[in-house]
What does this fold into?
Amino acid sequence: MDWKRAFQLAFIYVGTVVGAGFATGREIVEFFSKFGSLGIVGIAISGLCFIYFGSKMMLLTLKIRAKSYYQLNQYVFGPVFAPFVNVIMSIMLVGVTGVMLSGAGSLFEEQLQLSKLLGIFLTIFFGLIVLRVGTKGLVFVNMLVVPILIICSLLLSIHSSQFPDFVERIKWMDSFNWQFIISALAYAGFNVTMVQAVLVPAALEIDDEKIVKLGGVIGGFILMLVLLSSHFTLVQLDDMVTFHIPMAVIVNKFAPSFFFLFIVMVYGEIFSSIIGNIFGLGRFIERSINIHPFWIGFMIFFITFFISQIDYSVLLSALYPAFGYVSLFFLLLLFIK
It folds into this structure.
């Protein structure tokens, strides 16, 4: 068994799932922590979904020899619905990448007091370098970012465990709400559907059933571990649902010495997600345009730069609900296949 390649695939999995919302804690609060102790059960459900569906998706990729999410969706949804799914998924990938690019600029502006455009252009510059290197660049970025994510989330969780009411806050539950199950499934469904953009070509490149299955299991377990440790940290914050960047509030208030590591972690997660999305989009576009992947990446960055300058939230807010239903349907069909 090639454990090195399994971990590389797992880190690509994790690095593409995490992003601005994950790093800042906002997604974790909205999908899990606001439910109190039920959030732990929700994280377990999502984690098991990441393990099972991530592995199955990649095994299915090898079975049908899919080169991009286009071919996989053709197989899963069939010829009638697949075109609709592929269009909405492509728009979501471009839109989310544009929003994350804007988030990278905002991080420079709000946390480092530097120009937002400087942050955006540096991200594009480093992104083009990674794309120039190819798959090895994608692997390198995630092998660098994911360990920082794991270390940072565990350190913050360990630091939070020193608070006198740490256990009581973890046990807290306002009232029993079955919605936590739907929330957990929606979170896993959305991310598994989106991450196929990068996992499908990555799995085909590895082309080994045992390695891709192990990579899916390791990646899903890491996601569950990081979600759990982040949840333990976030529930220590009063009125956590009222903050746009709850993790930053915790770091500034309880662990200021972690601030620089936190900034590196947030930027790394944003960058790894941007690279993963563009890598997946590039493989999708390659089927119809015969040009070098670098120039495809350059074209995508050019489009997402302009998206990062406008309020794209209106379109995203309209697409998210539709894509949410598509994602849950994708999990159901993936389970059946």
In short: The chain has one domain: 3-336. The chain has a mean pLDDT of 86. The first helix runs from residue 3 to 17.
